[in-house]
Amino acid sequence: MSLNKILIANRGEIACRVIKTARRMGILTVAVYSEADAGARHVRLADQAVYIGPPAAQQSYLLAEAIVAACKQTGAQAVHPGYGFLSENESFAQACAREGIVFIGPPVAAIRAMGSKSEAKKLLEAAGVPLTPGYHGDDQDPAFLNQQADRIGYPVLIKAAAGGGGKGMRAVFKSEEFLDALSSCKREALSSFGDQHVLIEKYLQRPRHIEFQIFGDMQGNVVHLFERDCSVQRRHQKVLEEAPAPGMTSERRAAMGRVAVAAARTVGYVGAGTVEFIVDSHGSFYFMEMNTRLQVEHPVTEMITGVDLVEWQLRVAAGESLPLAQEQLAIRGHALEARIYAEDPDKGFLPSTGTLVHLAAPEESLHVRIDSGVEQGDAITPHYDPMIAKLIVWDETRDKALARMLQALAQYRVVGVANNIDFLSRLVACPAFASADLDTGLIERERALLFPETGAQAPPAQAWLLAGLAELLRETAAAQRAAARREDTHSPWHSRDGWRLNSAARRTLLLRYHETEQSLAIAYGGDGRSGYTLTLDGHATHAAGQLGENGELRADLDGMRLTATVIASGLRRHVFLHGRAYIFNSIDPLYHAGEGGGLDGGLAAPMPGKIVAVLVSAGSHVDKGQPLLILEAMKMEHTINAPASGLVKSFRFAIGEQVGDGAELVEFEIDKT
C-alpha cells in the first residue's frame, strides 16, 4: 500500500516533526487546528489545514468524529495521532478502521490491552513479566483502595489507569493523606483522559525510570532500539532524558530488552511503542506500563541509533517490513533532551502564558537539534501544554554531551513568558546529575542547588551596566529613525548626545531586579570620547557599544569587550549574559504607586483556568499556607493557599466556573495581630 496523504491529529512540535518527515518522503500532509491554533506553526507548514472546533481540547483535538470527518473531507488515507490527545484512544482507532482510514499506530487490540495500566499489568503478569507490588483491580471504592494502600505499605503511588505524562498521579506517604490524594487524582484523570480509574503501587525509594523503545511491523517482526533514562522528573513529569542509560551493563540491557520485546509480542504490537520500567537501587527492574504511541523523548533514541522513528512509523503503516533487524541496530555516542517550557520554576513550575516577544534558539548542527511547534511572535495559550521546544544534543560521550547541552542552553533566548532555561542549566550542571547519581527524586533532593535564593542569583555589575547602555543606545536609534522622517533631518532636537552649553549633561536611570533597586548615573561623552560614563555604586565606567535590531549588544566597558543580548519588552529589560538571563524593570521616577493594596482584599488567579474544588468554607479562619481551593489549568491542578493567617470572607467563583488570568478568587482578610 502507498500512503500519499496523511492527516496529523495533533498540534505543536510533534505535528511539525511529522509534517517535515512526510514532506521528505513525498507525502502530502493535512493539519487540523482549533480556534486557538488558527495561526499556529503546524498549520503554516502543512499542505492543507482543517478547522475542527473551539480552543478546549474536548471540543476540538479530542473529538474523534471531527478528525475522521477531516480525513474524509481532504481524502487523507491515514491519520498520525502524535502523542497525547487521541494517540492511545481505542475508540478513535476503531472509528478510523470503520471508515477505512489507516491509524498510524498499533492495532486496536494492542491499544485495548495496554490502554489500561491495570489491565496491562494483569496480562503481562500472566506472561511472566516482573511487576511492582500493588493493586490493579476493578474495585474503585475509595475506602477499599485506602485499605489496599495500607496493605501494600507506605509510601504508595496512585496512578490513573489510562494516564500518562504525570497527570492523575500522586505519591502518598501516610494513610490519612490517601483519600484527599485519591480525589485529586481522579479529578485530574477524568479531565485529562476521560477515565478516573486508578491503580495503587508500592512507591520505591530512589528508583530510576528506564524505558525501552520498541517497534513492530505487520509481518510479526519486533525489535527494541535500546533504552532511555527518564529518571529526572518533577511531579512525575520528565524534565531531562538521555540515551543510553548511564551505568547500564550490556547484560542488563539485553535482559530488559528481551522483556520489552516479549511484552510487545504478547499483544501483537505494530508500530512505535515504549515499555517503561522502574529500577530499584539494586538493579532489579519492574514493568510499569506500555505507551502505545511515540514518546516526547524519542529524539534521543534517534540521535544514538541514526534511525528516523517517524519515517519508520509511516513505512510500517504502509505495510513495509522494519528497515533493520535487531542485530543491525547499535548505539553510537550519547544524547540528552531538555524540555523548554513556558513555566516558572521559582513558583512551583506554574505555567506561563503570553506572546513570544523574542525567541532565539542555538544553531542546529550534527550535535544540536531543536524540535519546536512555535516561532517568535506565536502565543503560548492556557489551552494546551506550555512546551516551547525540545532541545536535543549529541556527542561521543556523556561528558561531552553535557557540555554541549550547557552551551546550547546558554544560547537560548526567550522573552515574553516565564521559562525554565536557567533552571535546566542549573540542573545539567548539578553534581548529582553530572556524575549520573540519578533517581526520580533528584530534583527535590538537590533543591538547595536548583532553587537558590534570589540573593544568590543577584546580577553582576556588568548586567546592570549593559541594561543601562542598551537603553541609551535604543533611545539614540529611535531618535535617528524619528529624524529620518522629518523635513529637517539635522535638527539638534533629534540628537541624543547629551550636548549642553558650558556644562555636561547628566541623568539617572532607575532599574529594579526583584526587590533590589539601583540608580545608574549617566554622563554623556567626556574626555573627548564618544559613549557614556555610567556610575553604579559609586564606581564610574566608560561604556560604548552597538545594539543590533535583534537585541545583540557589542559593548566596551572600560576596555573590556562583551557580547550580550538585551531585549526590551514593556517596562522589562531582559539581559542575556554569560549563559544567564536577568530581568530588570525600568522604573519611572515620577510614578508613585498608591497606598494600600497588599494582601488584603483578594487572591488572584495566577492564570486562566477552572475551579475544581473549594477546600474550606466561607467564614473560616485559616492558617498561613492552608489550601483554600484548587484551580485546574493546562490539564494540571494548582492549589491556591492562604498567604497569611486570616479570615476567608467569601469565594468569588463556584466549582466548575471558568476564571480569567488575574481574577479575584477569594475575599480574604489578614489577621491584624
What layout of secondary structure does this protein have?
Elements: E1 5-8, H1 12-24, E2 28-34, H2 41-45, E3 48-53, H3 64-74, E4 78-80, H4 90-98, E5 102-103, H5 108-115, H6 117-126, E6 134-135, H7 142-152, E7 156-160, E8 169-172, H8 178-193, E9 198-202, E10 208-216, E11 222-234, E12 237-243, H9 250-266, E13 271-279, E14 285-291, H10 298-305, H11 309-317, E15 334-341, E16 343-344, E17 350-351, E18 354-355, E19 358-360, E20 368-372, E21 379-380, E22 387-395, H12 398-411, E23 413-415, H13 421-429, H14 431-434, H15 442-445, H16 447-450, H17 461-484, E24 499-500, E25 503-504, E26 506-513, E27 516-524, E28 532-536, E29 539-547, E30 552-557, E31 560-569, E32 572-577, E33 580-587, E34 601-604, E35 609-614, E36 621-622, E37 627-633, E38 636-641, E39 646-651, E40 658-659, E41 664-670
Parallel strand pairs: 1-2, 1-4, 2-3, 4-5
Antiparallel strand pairs: 6-9, 7-8, 7-9, 10-11, 10-13, 11-12, 12-15, 13-14, 15-22, 16-17, 18-21, 19-23, 20-22, 24-25, 26-27, 26-33, 27-28, 28-29, 29-30, 30-31, 31-32, 32-33, 34-41, 35-37, 35-40, 36-39, 37-38, 39-41
Helix pairs in contact: 4-5, 12-13
Defining key terms:
single chain; 673 residues; alpha+beta; Rossmann fold; Dna Ligase, domain 1; Glycoprotein, Type 4 Pilin; 8-stranded antiparallel sheet; 41 strands
What can you see in these coordinates?
With 673 residues, the chain is of the alpha+beta class. It has 17 helices and 41 strands. Among the domains are: 100 residues, Rossmann fold (3-Layer(aba) Sandwich); 70 residues, 2-Layer Sandwich (Dna Ligase, domain 1), CATH 3.30.1490.20; 127 residues, 2-Layer Sandwich (Glycoprotein, Type 4 Pilin), CATH 3.30.700.40; 70 residues, RNA polymerase II/Efflux pump adaptor protein, barrel-sandwich hybrid domain (OB fold (Dihydrolipoamide Acetyltransferase, E2P), Beta Barrel). It is 26% helix and 33% strand. The strands form ten sheets. It has an eight-stranded antiparallel beta sheet. An eight-stranded antiparallel beta barrel has the order 26-27-28-29-30-31-32-33. Helix 4 runs antiparallel to helix 5 and helix 12 runs antiparallel to helix 13. The longest helix is centred in the last third of the chain and has 24 residues. The chain starts with a strand and ends with a strand.
